[in-house]
Design brief:
The structure is a homodimer. Chain A is mainly alpha-helical and about 230 residues long. In chain A, helix 7 runs antiparallel to helix 10 and helix 8 runs antiparallel to helix 9. Chain A is flat, with a radius of gyration of 21 Å. The first copy, chain A, binds a DNA duplex (19 and 19 nucleotides) through loops.
DNA sequence: ACCTGAACACCGTTCAAGT
DNA sequence: ACCTGAACACCGTTCAAGT
């Protein structure tokens, strides 16, 4: 396997800092998120980030053990933007829908985060907060024991699994227009009649709305399925 | 954004090759998959792969335009291992379940593929074949028009969204035992009572079987939800 | 306590040169 | 037609040295 055993920023004691330190971790993370938003995951290098902060490339290692830790920090920042509705206010189905759409929107706002989902440990305070509130929703819906967790995993799996490729399509589209893109896929699908039919069916609509329809279709199906479980 | 507009190996004319060329693309891809299986995505470099083939690092560029193309090729190889059951033999629900479990098993066998899912274009013949047959299943189930595609997207989103983090856990566990891991997560979750409860509930069972239960829970829910859609 | 630059061990890719 | 090595422009990270 590729990755090191296990480690996380959130499990180390942070460095004690004096009253007025030169730079702060918050400042660095904010700059990192900015750079990531602008140039994507591959656009972030320690040297570039250092330069952006008017510092030597290696100064950052005072605040952060390595690049992975920095990414963990930036990643948790994204989770901080997700608002999880209260099931007492809107009922569990509406709460779950709003949450799902909110997660999707947040990821689309920070496309680079899709590259980290499920790959980086999510142990930061913001992801913990979201996880905590997701459990509350499914508890309020009436689920118990392991099922509470299973519901949460199922929901996030769906949202992530749907959004990750969506981002890939959006970014890889680049400047190409829809017609060009369809021809591209048609060519690749040439030997597969079902796929060709699929491409042609999808090609009618505006890609953005088709994606939203698709997201909604799966979400509603999932909610129906969970509801059935809950009742039994 | 980070990535280049759009390009894929599958959209270029392959190089004409003489009767007995020095190396073949197949040989290179096979070696790449082997290296990826052994050392993960970060373990594959053009230099290492070249060395493994007893060639200079840059010889590979004769057969492949760049590393991304090589990954596309290797990725499609993985799709080639997925077998999609025929709905005429087993009925659509069983066909979908078997497919879902098969996809999961294939990804677990090649953990590096999880790092490429949804990030790399999947336009190769093997992924097209799988897509084609997935559409056949949902057509056989009675879905029509856009819904056929929506069903397919929903299913793959679920399987991928569930399996990607599963791999991250497996690899990051490394040599750590379960108790250690649970303490780690407990520490991170300290401030969130719901999460703590979740950790404790999950901690009872063997991780592998809990993951399988979780996968099955979501899959059955999803199937129930789709069935409801189909009926309406 | 914080920051620096040089240095190490890597990358992917290009390209002129070889056979 | 195929392969090579040198070279370029990058990486993340370590570490002795500075203030």
């Amino acid at each position: 396997m590729s990755s090191k055993p296990f480690s996380s920023v959130w499990l180390r004691e942070p460095r004690k800092s004096a009253a007025a330190p030169g730079r702060s971790r918050e400042e660095i993370v904010a700059a990192a998120v900015e750079l990531l938003d602008q140039e994507g995951l591959s656009g972030l290098s320690m040297r570039k980030l250092g330069a952006r902060l008017g510092a030597g490339a290696t100064s950052l290692y005072w605040y952060v053990a390595n690049k992975d830790e920095l990414l963990e920090l930036a990643y948790d920042q994204v989770w901080g933007e997700i608002i999880v509705p209260d099931p007492d206010d809107v009922g569990w189905r509406d709460a779950v829908s709003a949450l799902a759409y909110g997660m999707r929107a947040t990821i689309l706002r920070h496309p680079w985060s899709a590259d980290l989902i499920g790959r980086l440990p999510a142990l930061g305070p913001n992801s913990m907060r979201v996880g905590d509130r997701i459990r509350r929703i499914f508890k309020a819906a009436g689920f118990q024991g392991l099922d509470i967790d299973f519901c949460g995993s199922t929901l996030t799996a769906y949202v992530f699994g749907m959004t990750i490729p969506e981002i890939a399509w959006r970014t890889s589209m680049g400047d190409k227009d829809i017609g060009q893109m369809r021809d591209t896929v048609r060519e690749a699908a040439a030997a597969h009649p079902e796929m060709l039919e699929g491409v042609d069916t999808l090609a009618d609509g505006d890609p953005d709305t088709v994606r939203r329809l698709s997201f909604d279709f799966g979400l509603v199906s999932l909610l129906d399925g969970l509801e059935r479980r809950r009742a039994s």
